[in-house]
Fold these 4 entries.
Entry 1:
Amino acid sequence: MRPARAGDADDLARVQVASWRSAFAGIVPPPLLDELTGAEASALWRDRWREAIGNPPTSRHRVLAAVSDAVPREVTGFVSAGPATDADRWPGTDAEIYEFRVAPDRTGQGHGGRLMHAVADTLVSDGFRTVSIWALEADALVRQFLESAGWALDGARGELDVGVSVPVVRLHTAISE
């Protein structure tokens, strides 16, 4: 686990696209999924990750990368987090995980748990006490993973607009007292 580097942008985009292909399969129409995860979208995500890493909006915006133990070391997942953006959260003490992704072929290997521990430690160091994340309502695996780690639904619901509206739910957890 380490802070992401600008040179990781291609790998972050690769992991995000693979994860989205898996998470959104059966939820959004195949042509739309192809558009969201095609070469043009990958290039856009790469540029956005490079900007997020190299020029974050605040010193409390973070991107962490999970890397494999084997040489050559490969980015297997990532998490981006910072001050909460929801109107009912206070960004002084409430954090938000904006994106949490593990490559589909690397799930179940501990990368997600290590990412969550690392981001929680980082957010606590930045003065946050709680953290929330929006998850696809239909993504039972991510929700089970979070709930098994002590996260809970907080009743907030929304819609993610990816060309079609996809229901999302918010989970939260305390990370410090």
Entry 2:
Amino acid sequence: MQRMRWSHVPLLSLSLLLAGVTVAAQQPAPPPIPQAILTAKKVFLSNAGADSGLFPHPFTGTPDRAYSEFYTALGAWGRYQLVGDPSEADLVFELQLSAPNGPTNANKQNGASDPLPMLRLVILDRRTHYILWALTESINPAALQKTHDHNFDDALTALVTDLKQLTAPR
């Protein structure tokens, strides 16, 4: 009886191995990142502004806060040379802070939710003006001004991290 069980082990192992190969073969390759994003050296950062009603409450500062802080973070990263004119750039990064309209106190059981302010970075090919990629980070809600500002900074940091991951060598 013991001998019969062990005789099935090679067959079972081969079956599991082939099943694993089949599953691995069925998983699609990740979609390619546009080459222009991976090879760009010069970037123009475009300030697409902020929706009204976000400054000075719930966020401190001015509507240019996201642009200023993102510009500083890009410069500190050092991956791109920031240029002052889009005609000198390989890519245009368009940054916008928006607060979309949506349901307020809607029936959350039916899938409705209150929208959160968000930072959206659109990456455009400078020559063609085509959108190559877009990254979005929501800003979590808060009750206190200090926490709103902290959540703003967290979302901005996450957006920079998203960009770093997108452009990382594969």
Entry 3:
Amino acid sequence: MRGREMSNAGLFGPGSLTWRVNREGVLLLGGGRALLLQVAHPLVAAGVAQHSNYREDPFGRLYRTLDTVTTIVFGSTEDAEEAAERLHRIHTQVTGKADDGTAYDATSHDLIMWVHATLVDTSLLVYENYVERLTLGERERYYEEQKQLGEKFGVPYDEQPTTLADFNDYRDEVIYGGHTLRVTDELRDVAGATLHPRLPVGFVARPAVEYFNLVTTALLPEWLRDELGLPWTPTRARMHAAQRAVIRRLVPALPGLLREFPPARSADRRARAAA
């Protein structure tokens, strides 16, 4: 019976930091940051440019990534395994060469690790900015759990940074080391399609898109923001800080129906039934 309970609870289950952090719908605000950091890697950029229709559907890849992550995080163990296998099958089809002739393969552990790292780092960043601060111990526990998610994405456990401190060093080296990320034409295209999507005239959600852009710009590394030509002035910084403070007060007051991802609520019901 215990085995079935664990299968129904999924890979993480109630009480995990992963369920606590990743259930928050406000994490969507970090989608633009994660996407642009991913595509700042030239080989990821080449794969996106050659194997997706990001110009016509700029948020499609982001939504598909979100769907896969929420299924692995909140689904039953069986659902998580199926989602991971489906992701691997897709990745085996994403191969080619970048403009400089460098070959890429989406099953490469290095590339998957970077994509996974952007999701982990952005989730923590947005949660702590818009929901609540975590203790160092909680952040370390969250990272340790996320290594299991990294395995499901395709990175062996022993090839991931061992500790949170190691992970932070890896992240900083990739972002600031000057040898891995760079602004390419593909990145500029993805940034334009994501931050300035074609919207119907009078589209009612236009203010939400503008706020999404503000948050994306605020959370990007300064050098990447500057090279992409994204304006960041003291006025915009104050606007972001004020709106962040409002959201941080608002989120705890919202009912779960409005605050949380639906798969998280489904996982809670499944876990209670199993118990």
Entry 4:
Amino acid sequence: MLEHLPRGVGRALKDVRPGLEKVVFNDEVAAGAPDCIEVTSSAFEDGAALPVRFTADGDKLSPPLAWTGVPEGTAAVVLLIEDPDAPAPAPLVHTIAWALPGADGELAEGDLKSPAGEGQELSLGRNSFLGAQYLPPDPPPAHGPHRYVFQVYALDAPLDLHGKPIRTQLVHAMKGHVIGKGSLIGTYERV
């Protein structure tokens, strides 16, 4: 969708970015939780470029992810993917999966519902474009590199959420329940 924006718009908005400090990982809701969960992908290394197949310019599939080190006593795991470099006041939400099993786990390529397919049956919240699915990276042309923060949270209780919650509802429900966290960053730039 954003690939059709004129390059001049991307250049004009180059410095408009909320920044990493605004992702939930750095929010007060998760600030006191230990960074004990290792989040990895067989498709890219931490800080490296996402393969095009996982973006709006490729197959629009969700990438494979794995997480280990989930603390004992975890009742549920949350996966949240945010882009802190979107030209907006807050990070752009790409995925909310809010009721994953409370243990080490993984998602295979394409397991998240996306424009490419139905994926697994998971409890998904709404992304920033209000779809309950994986929103493939789609940065504006000439806006520079974007970081996509794949965040995993261990919770000491299942979340009291229903339907397809948005980011603010998720964060409110997580408050006081985060007992571990971890993250992985992939980058993508449309040139």
